[in-house]
Design a protein that fits this description.
By secondary structure, the chain is of the alpha+beta class. It has one domain. It has helices spanning 5-25, 31-34, 88-92, 100-123, 190-195, 225-236, 260-268; strands spanning 35-39, 44-46, 74-76, 78-87, 141-143, 146-148, 151-152, 159-162, 171-184, 197-210, 216-219, 252-255, 271-273, 281-283, 291-294. The strands form 5 sheets. The chain has a 5-stranded mixed beta sheet with strand order 7-11-8-12-15, with helices on one face. Strand 13 and strand 14 (281-283) form a beta hairpin.
Length: 298
C-alpha cells in the first residue's frame, strides 16, 4: 500500500470515529452523579463561593454582607494524555485494523478517567484537605464558633452517604479542554524518521477537587441499619454558621463491591429479621431511602 497524506488523513478520520464512538458509549460515567461539572476558561478557578454554605435571612435594616476577601480555594487545571504508536510497516502492509481495538479501548478509558480521579478523592478524603483546611472527611470542621463532623470512625470497610440532589455537589469536575484525539502522522515527523512509526494521542485538560463536605459522610462502622441511621441523622442535623439547619437530604449510598450485598439488602429488602426471640420478620424502614452506587474503584 502506498502511504501518502491522503491515506494518512483517512486513517486518522477512521481512528477518530472509533475513539469517539467508544468514548460516547462508555458505560456508567458515575462521577457525574457525585461531581458538579464546572467549565473553566483559564488556568484555574477560585471557588470562594464554597467557603460559606448559602442561606437566607429576614432583611431587617441593612444587608448583612459576608465578605470572602482574603479567602481562596483555587483549583488548577492539569494536563492529561495517552499515546499509541502505529508502525509504518503495518500501514504499508494494510494491517491498520489491528489497532482498532486499542483505539476503542483508549476511548473507553478516557471516558472512565474522571471516575478514577473522583474515586481517588473519596479514598483519600480522610487525609486530604478541603477548603476549610481540614480533611474532607473529618470530625472537627469549623462551623461558626463550633465544629461539625462528617466522619464516623470504626474498624470496618468504608462506606459513604451523600446528598447529590443539589446543583452544588460534594465534588468538583473542572473542565478546561475536552478529550480529543490528535496525531503526528507526517512523513517528515521526527518519530517517522527515528522510529518508523506514526503517533496518535489523546489529550485533555481538567481537574477534580473537593466541593461541599457537608454533602458527604464517611463511615467505617459496620454497614447496618443502626449506623446507617446515625449517618443520616448526622447529615440532616448539620447547621450553617448562623445555627440554621442546612436541609441536607442524603439520597445516595456509595459502597465498594465488597459491601454491595449488604447495601442492597439495607435499601431494597421489604422485610428484615426482627429482634424478637421468635425470629420473626418486620418491615424494613430504610427501604428506598437512598439510591445505591457500587464503585469498583473504591
Amino acid at each position: 500500500m502506498i502511504i501518502n497524506q491522503e491515506l494518512l488523513g483517512e486513517i486518522y478520520v477512521g481512528l477518530s470515529t472509533l475513539f469517539n464512538s467508544a468514548f460516547q458509549a462508555a458505560p456508567d460515567p458515575w462521577y457525574k452523579r457525585l461531581a458538579m461539572t464546572v467549565p473553566s476558561a483559564g488556568r484555574s478557578i477560585d471557588y470562594k463561593f464554597l467557603l460559606d454554605f448559602p442561606g437566607m435571612r429576614e432583611w431587617l435594616g441593612e444587608r448583612v454582607i459576608k465578605s470572602l476577601a482574603g479567602k481562596s480555594w483555587e483549583v488548577i487545571n492539569k494536563n492529561w494524555e495517552s499515546t499509541i504508536e502505529v508502525f509504518r510497516n503495518d500501514i504499508a502492509d494494510d494491517q491498520i485494523g489491528l489497532y482498532n481495538p486499542i483505539v476503542s479501548a483508549l476511548g473507553q478509558e478516557a471516558a472512565h478517567h474522571p471516575n478514577q480521579l473522583i474515586a481517588d478523592l473519596i479514598n483519600d478524603g480522610g487525609i486530604a484537605e478541603c477548603y476549610d483546611g481540614e480533611n474532607f472527611f473529618d470530625t472537627d470542621h469549623p462551623v461558626g464558633t463550633g465544629t461539625a463532623s462528617n466522619y464516623d470512625a470504626g474498624a470496618s470497610t468504608a462506606w459513604y452517604l451523600l446528598d447529590v440532589s443539589r446543583p452544588v455537589k460534594p465534588f468538583i469536575f473542572q473542565s478546561r479542554k475536552p478529550v480529543q484525539l490528535t496525531r503526528m502522522d507526517r512523513e517528515t515527523d521526527i518519530n517517522v524518521f527515528m522510529r518508523n512509526s506514526f503517533l496518535f494521542g489523546v489529550d485533555a485538560r481538567y481537574a477534580v477537587a473537593y466541593g461541599m463536605w457537608q454533602l458527604a459522610f464517611k463511615s467505617t462502622q459496620t454497614l447496618n441499619s443502626t449506623y446507617y441511621q446515625n449517618a443520616r441523622a448526622a447529615m440532616m442535623d448539620l447547621e450553617n454558621a448562623e445555627g440554621r439547619k442546612l436541609g441536607i437530604r442524603p439520597n445516595l449510598l456509595v459502597v465498594p463491591p465488597s459491601l454491595e450485598g449488604t447495601a442492597r439488602e439495607l435499601l431494597n429488602a421489604q422485610f428484615v429479621l426482627g429482634d424478637d426471640t421468635a425470629g420473626g420478620a418486620k418491615s424494613n424502614i430504610w427501604q428506598g431511602t437512598a439510591d445505591l452506587l457500587v464503585v469498583p474503584e473504591l
